[in-house]
Structure formats: structure tokens, C-alpha cells
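Example complex used in Figure S2.
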Amino acid sequence: MTQRKLNRDFYQSRDVVRMARDLIGKLVVTVQGDQLTSGWISECEAYAGVTDRASHAWNGRRTARTETMYHPGGVAYVYLCYGLHHMMNVVTGPEGEPHAILIRSIFPVDGIEFMHERRGFPKPKTPLAAGPGTVCQALGITRADDRTDLTGNRIWIEDRGVVVPDTEVKVTPRIGVDYAGDDARLPYRFVWVPGE
DNA sequence: ATGTCGATTTGCT
DNA sequence: GCAAATCGACATA
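Predicted assembly (196 residues):
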């Protein structure tokens, strides 16, 4: 059996946009106490280093918050948005290059009941983990998880051998980055649409 | 020190 | 469709 948990080499092995494409169909897992929750990554967006106006690290911006993005690939970048929503990113690439991938949606797999609990038992029609804020809420990820090593035993990503063909992956511009000028139109968002 | 606004979600009109 | 919720990061001074 090959090692399923993605290792540090993987996180540094390819361009951030290619990496975002390849994270579709991988399983993101969190462990909190004896509760394990997980889901297939079904939607994510690449934020490409210092040249990407949509990125927090655009133009080399380096602050206490963005410092995480400059870490070596394979750590989590988690920040607070609108004062109440946590955003979970996967840092990729070599140390010093601030590439990151925002996890926007998952298809829930393990611990679904516990994820419902974390979400406050939303109405049946409400998506459980569709949208970056709800993903973090369902998986129990908060700003305390910023800089968590993704090769550790708190948060990690597994390759379970699921192969998502290009025909099932929609590529679109990113959401909510209108401030980024021309870069707002870059095709850096990947959405898994099974059965397409 | 102060003001603006965000890689959003939810519920109400 | 619209606005409230809610706060820290960042820019400006």
C-alpha cells in the first residue's frame, strides 16, 4: 500500500495552478480529539505568488498574516474574513514563494453527523460544506490552525486513488476578487462536477 | 489613532 | 435581491 497522505515533496512538486487542479478529488481530513471528519475537495482556487493581484501576497506584500504564505509548501494558511469566516488554504511551492490554494467546497465523507453538529444543524436544504467559510466550520478549522503542518496528524490531505477526468472539472475565474483588475479573470478556479 | 473593507454566509423582504 | 453580522489587517496620518 502506498502512502496515501500527501507528503512535503508533493506540495512542492508543481505549479500552484496545476496543483489546484490536482487537488480536485483528493480527501481533506481533520482530527479533533477522537473525531475524524473528511471530504473530497470539490472546488478550489489558486492564488499565484507575488504577481497575482488577487493574492494577499501580491507585489511581495509580507505581513504577520501573509507570512504563512511564504512558508515551504505543505502548511495550512488560515485567516479570518469578514470578521467571522475562516478561510482554509494549502500553501504550495518552495519556501519564499507565496503560493496558496483556497479550499472552497468539499463533498462530505467521514464524520458527517459531527460536521452537521459543528455547522449548528443547518436546515436540511442548506449545503453542509459548500463555500470556504462553511468548509472550515464543518471541518473544525480555525485561525488557530494557521501554519499547521499538513504532513502531521491534525489536518492532512490524502490521495485515495480517485481520478477526476478533465471532463468533470469546470475551470472558471475566481469568486469575489473583483478588486484584482485583469487578474480577476484568470481561470484559476476548479470545480468538480461529477458525471459531466 | 482612526477609517475602510474584505478570497462570505444567512435570513428576511 | 439585499443587508447585517463582526473584527482584524492594513493604509493613512
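Chain A has a mean pLDDT of 96. Helices of chain A lie at 8-11, 16-23, 112-118, 132-139.
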